[in-house]
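Quick review question:
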């Protein structure tokens, strides 16, 4: 197991000696050790180097077939996985549930077993139901990577967020990371909480009480029912961002919310929008993040999302390298 920052090259046999435990799937970060996360982040450094080459291609996944199976719309995640796979020379087949036999009543298990029979080495799945990737992992021999399931988890988004933070600030341990917005409906928030705390960051959750998981309030230090490690909860965003090293705004999950959770969008903007006046309370070099897509001028002001402190586009670029690293490690580059 690699425990120091060490480049892992997909072109070098030395990289093949590193091992990501005995992991066959990536379904969430709640069972990742600090060493495993560091291995992914260190391998990402090598993958970023590949992406700077004139010919962005390495043969490490030649002969492998990767299926993306998305039951929900996606631009960033799906395109990122596809690009990552192609740079590693894998064959990629994209399946949109709306254009498959799912519309005829085919079950999830039948769909993935069909994909397995077609020779899948990897299945990248996004599904509106929490836990769906776990069902898939039990049904197939292929590697399964969770690209987002319901409100539950989005591990690759959290890994690219961790990488972006470490790449910019040089560390994660000891940083104050504030996550603002719709915590209750956010799979990104949950995976980030696990990843950040595992890496030693101090996590602060902030949002309207109606958009916090049940049982969390400003006095909570942890919440076993929500299955997250200890965090600080603050319903006042101005207090939350004081001294913050990183502020991550979350998209309002309007498609997943029940009606009546917010009086008006205007009130949310007034009380919880990440804007310049609030960021003035944070550290001078604060990073501003957002998993995308951004509801412009709602959860984050336009001048901040496009300003010098924003690393939103960098998150997108880093996502390709992080997903390359995971595909490489799971395929055996770690053995």
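Suggested answer, residue by residue:
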């Amino acid at each position: 197991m690699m425990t120091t920052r060490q480049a892992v090259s997909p072109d070098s046999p030395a990289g093949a000696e590193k091992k990501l435990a005995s992991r066959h799937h990536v379904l969430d970060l709640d069972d990742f050790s600090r060493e495993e996360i560091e291995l992914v982040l260190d391998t990402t450094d090598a993958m970023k180097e590949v992406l700077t080459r004139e010919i962005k291609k390495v043969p490490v996944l030649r002969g492998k077939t990767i299926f993306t199976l998305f039951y929900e719309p996606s631009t960033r995640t799906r395109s990122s996985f596809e690009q990552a796979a192609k740079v590693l020379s894998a064959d990629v087949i994209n399946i949109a549930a709306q254009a498959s036999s799912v519309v005829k009543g085919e079950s999830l298990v039948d769909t993935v077993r069909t994909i397995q029979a077609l020779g899948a080495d990897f299945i990248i799945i996004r599904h509106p139901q929490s836990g769906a990737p776990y069902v898939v992992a039990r049904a197939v021999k292929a590697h399964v990577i969770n690209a987002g399931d319901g409100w539950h988890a989005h591990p690759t988004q959290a890994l690219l967020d961790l990488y972006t933070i470490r790449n910019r600030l040089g560390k994660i341990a000891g940083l104050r990371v504030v996550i603002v917005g719709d915590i209750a409906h956010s799979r990104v928030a949950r995976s980030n909480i696990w990843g950040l705390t595992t890496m030693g960051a101090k996590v602060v959750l902030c949002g309207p009480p109606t958009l916090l998981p049940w049982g969390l309030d400003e006095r909570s230090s942890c919440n076993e029912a929500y299955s997250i490690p200890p965090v600080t909860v603050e319903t006042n965003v101005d207090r939350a961002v004081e001294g913050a090293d990183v502020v991550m705004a979350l998209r309002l999950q309007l498609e997943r919310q029940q009606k009546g959770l917010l009086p008006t969008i205007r009130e949310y903007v007034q009380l919880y929008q990440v804007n310049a006046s609030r960021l003035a309370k944070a550290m001078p070099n604060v990073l501003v993040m957002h998993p995308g897509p951004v509801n412009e001028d709602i959860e984050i002001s336009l001048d901040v999302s496009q300003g010098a402190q924003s690393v939103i586009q960098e998150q997108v670029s880093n996502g390709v390298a992080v997903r390359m690293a995971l595909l490489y490690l799971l395929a055996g580059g770690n053995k």
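Why it works: The chain is about 35% helix and 15% strand. The radius of gyration is 20 Å.
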